[in-house]
DNA sequence: ACAGTTTCCCGTAAATGC
DNA sequence: TGCATTTACGGGAAACTG
């Protein structure tokens, strides 16, 4: 009488934080004959992990028993929802059941559910458990925790293999790229196209590899830093996902952002374009940054130049929406009139045609222009309801 | 063997929040003869308030005993510092020792400290206690709590009169205005001048009152709303203090903000001034808002008009510093070239002379201008370290 | 329904542990 | 020492509670 089951978390499912509430639901998928007593479910954290052999031991602070009830929405099955479960630390232990120097974000836990029921004098034990959970004390680990969840669910069908990260299997780029695109389409509304995925594949595996069959290791995906950078591939990609969610959603979904473009491709794209042609791409050197590159008319028949700005990150974008930055960007060259160098979104769409509907899509907090100031009779001031 | 004593709080002294650490220090002001045992101090919350007769009962969650030590900085006196005290709720009680429908922010508490010492076979009890404390569960109550602390310390010399707010005495405007000015000079660096205090006095008590002797009630100061407004006098004033602390500090301290000006006074000031003369004043209709009013040249020999903008509040000022707003403010009148109407800070100081040193004093987060973009050889992009 | 009050929890910064 | 991990708590918003 076991059934697969999945807890929920407002932010990311299967990640819980000590001291913060989470909700979970258990359903009984078989119909029981009418019984005149109540079916009580008990919840246990890390039931099968022997205490003293786990690295961090947690327990549930809140009530762990609840009675099942007939679910209104379904066909009379029993279910129970725990709404305010909270876990807490016990302590760190010395002997760990997993091997190797795994990080906390790779440490898998689980919730178990038990119930008993008696029919015709026979006791029947019901038991089920959750998919692996990751317990994270800090939001700053969320990205790594989510990588664990993705890797696990991508590469194993077992509902519960808590030692998975002792020797995590590799993923083919074919599988992985599908999951990455799905991340984008789930969290933003637009997935990744072939060119974007191709750039990511090259970034992760190098240019020569036959991509779809190429194997990617867990370490390469999430643990090793990108050569020359202080962050891993997934840290970088997830920082961009966060940036889109918070500051670029409409223009990302409206396909204004090429985003994942190597510098070689960028050069190839813009080489023969009109001066003023520009494209938007995510920074490869900064976490969560976006920049634009435009074609500058050269002064005297030389080849045109490509110019980029320093990446905009969330702190600057929270002060001013990106569409407005593009609209109002000016270059001051000494002695000339400030001019906006951004004219055509690659390949050749007039800027305002692409971005007009996004100007002030979030209201500009720092607006400096007043269309027509309120005014009243002579020498009266503050007409705005004061 | 009692001595006055004062706890400290990072934000505002004498206000503590359940579950958040605070620090407190006790000194023994007499020198004891050498003793061969240690003097242990015990801390008790609300020692003398009978349980069951207080509205909210708190207790200290952390260790309450600590041994006194010779203080290095002073002349060998004993002292002890409790660094990580935390209180927590017990419950609400029915019978309250105070009368009337007082708010939580008027509920006074205290910390008591006890020590015993034995000399020549005689036990001597030492005891002291703190000035009244206010316990607040939320930052949104901080303003009201601070008003209680101010009123208490302004109007009583008793170190501990927990029933004070059952019938709070009135304050003379002479006393109160001094405290208000002191609030500004303590938290910002510049106090309030005579004109500013005069405006506040009229706002609080009406125009005709002989100010310094006029009595202000606690209710009028902090509990009743200003007629026609959804906030009290102190709520309004404190919101301005917060605005200055966060967004206007340099220009406030540089005396660029008249700030507290009635509309009548504003009119009298600006009436005969050059077009383009402006002044800055705090909004009387919005909490934590600042606005500017300028003299507009009338079209055809009419009397000049005074125009104001809608108040800027913290959300807009956090996107763009106020000095930059003043520098870049433009009015677009249909069919004309946008123009900045702010020329002379009242009475007649050229704008840039007053504000130049404050432009970009906080770095503008949403800057849109690049002096000279980085650039490299032909067709190379992103020179900013990528 | 409402206002006063508390809880909740993200996100950053700082502290802590290893 | 440096890195991994946890704690602290301001701030805004939701939830609570009489």
From TrEMBL, chains A, B:
Q: Which GO terms describe its biological process?
A: cell surface receptor signaling pathway via JAK-STAT; defense response to virus; negative regulation of developmental process; regulation of apoptotic process; type I interferon-mediated signaling pathway; type II interferon-mediated signaling pathway
Where does the protein principally reside?
cytoplasm
Any one cellular-component term (Gene Ontology): cytoplasm
Subcellular localization is given as: Cytoplasm; Nucleus
Q: Does the keyword Phosphoprotein apply?
A: yes
Keywords per UniProt:
Acetylation, Activator, ADP-ribosylation, Coiled coil, Cytoplasm, DNA-binding, Isopeptide bond, Methylation, Nucleus, Phosphoprotein, SH2 domain, Transcription, Transcription regulation, Ubl conjugation
Q: Name one GO molecular function term.
A: DNA binding
Domain SH2, by residue range, is: 252-348
- The ranges of region (Disordered) come to 360-386
What family is this protein classified in?
Belongs to the transcription factor STAT family.
Query: What's this protein's name?
Result: Signal transducer and activator of transcription
Q: In which organism is this protein found?
A: Hucho hucho
Q: Which residues of the full protein are shown?
A: 316 to 701 of 701
